[in-house]
Structures are given as C-alpha cells and as structure tokens.
Amino acid sequence: MKIGLVLKELHRSENDLAHELLQVSDRHKVDHEIYHVARDLAQWSQRHVKEIAAIAERYGEKLDPEPEGESHLAERLIDKGSELMGRAKTPGLLMLRDLRELYMKASGVSVDWEMLAQAAQGIKHTDLLEVCQRCHPDTLRQMRWANGKLKEASTQAIVS
Fold first, then answer.
1. Among the CATH numbers 1.10.20, 1.10.150, 1.20.1260, 2.60.40, which is that of 3-159?
2. Which pTM value belongs to this model?
C-alpha cells in the first residue's frame, strides 16, 4: 500500500498551505479581513498536520505532529527586498497573485484529501476515512475563500 506516501505528501502540502496563508496574512496586514481570516485558515491546516501525523504511523510514516512555524526571517527579508526594489509597486496585483497561489495550493490539498478518502473507503479503513471527512471540508472552505476574494479584488486590481 502507498497510503503512507500519500499521507507524507499531504502532510507536506498542508504545512505548505498553512505557511503560505501566514505569509499572505503578513503581507496584507492593512486588509484586516485578509489578515485575520488567513490566520484562522492557517490554523485549520496546522490542525490537519497534527491529525495526519497521528494516523500516519499506522501506514509506516513517522511525521512531525508540530506544524511548521510562521515565515522564516530569510523569506521576510526577501519579500521586503522585493518591495524596496519596486517589484511590489502594485499591491492589488500582489494580492491577486497571493490569492491565486493560495487557491492553487488549497486545490492540490483538496485533491489529495479526495484521493485518500477514496482509498480509505476502498480498503474499509474507517479511522482514515474519518480524518478525511473531518479535514477535507476545511480545505474546500479555504479554496472557496481564496476564490471569493479573487473575484472580489480582480476587477479593481486589473482595470485600475
């Protein structure tokens, strides 16, 4: 069985999604909705990381139950350097890029949850299926939020 490999990839992807949500939150502090909602959504992915790690040993994978922390200093310096060099002159387009990236990452995580749920159903592992059923709806909500924010911000950012 390759379920352990899927869990390992899902663990990495959820960590990556949480990390990206925290970075977007930091980059768009002036937009209070983005700042606060992105942080809340990051906590969901961090909880998923813990749940994945808890069940992964059953499938031969030892994964760290602690989610990765907030953005590293080096990444913050790179972002700040980009702003100072003028690459972030258009905050609206930067926000669209960030929301697009969040949507794409959440979509990938969603596909992984779906594949894992199908496998769990196929081999009748109800505990694994329950984890999928608890976590996947959160990921779908993360996708819907990013998509909704993209729709809301696109016209003004692109046309102005």
1. 1.20.1260
2. 0.87
